[in-house]
Amino acid sequence: MNNVRDKKRANKSLPFFFKTEFKVFFAIILVSSILLISTFSFDTVPPILNRGIQPATFPKGLLVLMIVLTSIIYYLSFKRPWKKEKNLPKPFFLTIISFVLFIIISKTLDFFLAISVLSIFVSFNWGERRVFYLLLVSMIFPLVVFIFFEMILGLRFPPGIITNLYYY
Amino acid sequence: MMAPLFSSKLLLVLLFGTLFGLVLGVLPGLGPTTGGALILPFTMTLDPLSAIILLTSIYCAGTYGGAITAVLINTPGTPAAAATCLDGYPLAQKGEAGRALGMATVSSTVGGIFSVIVLVFFAPILANLAYEFGQPEYFALAIFGLTMLASIGDGSPIKNLIAGAFGILISTVGKDFMTSIDRFTYGINELSVGIGFIPVVVGLFAISEMLTQSTLLDQVFKRVALKAVKLPTKDDYKKTWKTILRSSGIGSFIGVLPAEGGTVASLIGYSEAKRFSKNPEEFGKGSVEGIAGAEAANNAATGGAMVPTLALGIPGSATTAVILTGLIIHGVRPGPDLFKEQPEFLYGIFGAMLVANILFFIFGFFGAKLFARITLVPNKILWPMIFAVSVCGTYSLSQSIIDVWIMLFFGVLGFFMRRYGFSVVPVIIGLILGELVEGTLRQSIVIFDGNWLMFLTRPIALTFFILSLIALAFPLIRSKKNKKTI
Question: A45 and chain B: CB distance < 8 Å anywhere?
């Protein structure tokens, strides 16, 4: 109980721009505003053909609603501050890095190589050290998945250095 | 009702769906919604009836499967089993894991079967009513469904509404369906067709859960040993039969409400069981009534949630949103016409849900020990595998790598949403209802010649608007009363 109170107090003593509620409020307002501005560049239907509302009107309304609701939760957070979240651990950031690696490898080298690299990277960084299991998640399982999708579902995967060996 | 099921292929699909649903339900972090989304691309190889039977059997069995983990490791396999932990685990700690699981199995089955009966009777009635609906009524109904999002889960109502609005916003990406004008495409051709449902669902559920698991690697589960599942004793039945029936009714009713689902049903079922109990002091310490109340309600919500899904095309829960997508992908349009033109299709679904409830009773009773062992698969092996299936499944639907990027984007977004108290379920419901909301709104405005006040002249639409206001006001009043975070 004291711990929770201490955490709440710790959150209260931070400058407003470091507080979670402000960061969330700022992120939503920023993205919503950018999207709202972009709706003004949507093409419009000439008045003679226009039936009902313009295509931009509905998304504009939604974005304004999101901005208003976000402002309300930020205002309410002054009365009831949010609890401070625990810092994110190292494996989380390593998993995010593995996603980035996945995107780069699948775009430049090979889709299945990317899956294998991500699987071994995640499994290793989450604490797996046994070679058999690392091989299982990085090679055997992706291969089974590939065969299943390719042969049973008749799916054609994007070309790449490994996938091409199978296709050509 | 069962006639369409008398084919070896459909029975096989049903068997597989029930087993797969149980596995998904047992694994914390997965569940019928994520599992349904993952398996949706695979259903493309099946005929529509088999595909929907597969998804509904996963839904029924997955909802029950969550109880196994809730009782044995005090971690709900699915959010709907959260209330089961409160009494299931304490009872298991007393050395009565078999009794706890037996009660969970029986009450889940009774709740599930009760809800199928509700589905069989009420879905056609609701579908008949829907014949009276025009565009304004459908718009008002969709708004009601969206405002119900405010009260789902334990998240804050305003955050749920923001998430719901965001879900609708996603549905506006791509070519406008009335004018073919591009919206939010920013010159990316792939976005012209809009953002698919599968990348968003898999991202928000599976990938965000993978990121969540990466923050919980030091978590240690205390497992309780299970010898065998025991059927409840005569005394237990005496104690709980009223609770089971009451919770079955509550669960079915909550399920019918748009957007609400098993999680809300089980919490209400549990609290009502406690309110009516002669021994409320036993709750939280291993009360069989508590287990029965929560489990009958969450499984009863499955059939209930299928009522608006099939009759109106409005999902009753997150998993039925996946089932609804399955119906649409297979060219089946839910609504009153479905009841008139394809009754055998619907009877197939009803029959399948009934059989799935019986099957998970058998599997649960004899195989709970085995299913519990699945939780022993370490996350460091399980999640990379789930990632591989997620990526391939997402890619397979439109064979577009952009869908995979979208999935990863929504995975990261979903993680941060959950971290800061925004439920991801409203995004899914908003996404699926988005087109209906915008389409019916714009068509209504054309019908009313731009006069918005005409909505108020339609009695059914007006009723839904009033219900929407109540749905919005209720959680705000409740949170003020409970001093809950808004």
Answer: yes
